[in-house]
Task: structure prediction
Amino acid sequence: MNGRLVLSVFMLAAAGTSHAGLHVGMVSAVKKKAKELRDEKTSVERKDYRQDMRDFVKKISDYSRNLDGDFIVIPQNGQELVTLDGTETGRPAAKYLGAIDGVGREDLFYGYEKDNSPTDEEDTEYMKAFLDVAEENGLTILVTDYCSDKSSVLRSYEENGESGYISFAADSRELDGIPGYPEAPFNSNDDDIKDLADAENFLYLLNPDSYGSKGDFLRDLRATDYDILIIDLYFQGEDILTASDVRSLKKKDNGSDRLVIAYMSIGEAEDYRYYWDEDWNDHPPYWLCRENPDWVGNYKVMYWADEWQDIICGGDDSYLERIIGAGFDGVYLDIIDAFEYFEEK
Result:
């Protein structure tokens, strides 16, 4: 409540002012302001950041499937969204689960605290409880573990396979290359992969900075037999992949079909993306929040803001439109767990 406004009211009352109408009017104004502040506080307290993220993912799904009925949507992390109350035993969030085709999860068996180190069993079981809810509701689970020594890599694939998940053992958290081990993808096959549920493995490669050219990058991808490629829409942040580029990746080296999925962060803005406005460096929009201390140039966003959602899926120049226009089979959504940042604040 405005302290000066309250003080004025009490000063008038103490002085026994004869301006009764003014006095009543100011008291009314104070009460109105107090109610507005209470309502604002209640609104903030009641804001459901998890449901806001579910709604955003569903909006992306609805938008994309209106253009391509077979378009695949896979959110990564933020597994608590699969149940309405965010607990392992909660009722499944049916509308959210119906809007997506799979759930991605990092560090399930390796890398949660430290790369190449087993994830604590308690943490693994906590995450698995939610992933199993998603799997029981017909979704495919994609796990990225961060490990590089041969025994850990093999154990990662074995444990994920035993759980019914498809997985990728990344030898670097930078996701900057094709692992040398195993030489062929785990569960390599010559099946045609037409749907996410058909896949037995995937490659997750977002940072191609070690490649001298886009051509070299595409050549190396084409020479693999992964069932799914999860890559960025842009080569080295600037050179967009064309429909011809993406089409050339949809055949495995053995000649069978595969899926090509585009990575897209929806919980953070990245200052190297086409949508970044240099004015934001000094005059950020209200929905742009603090920089991620672990990833320079990445900024948390109020993902429920219309302005941000328009950038992602709001029209012909939106990020999603560019992905669909390039012919990708689906999208892999990152920073789904941004709700944790706002809940902690």
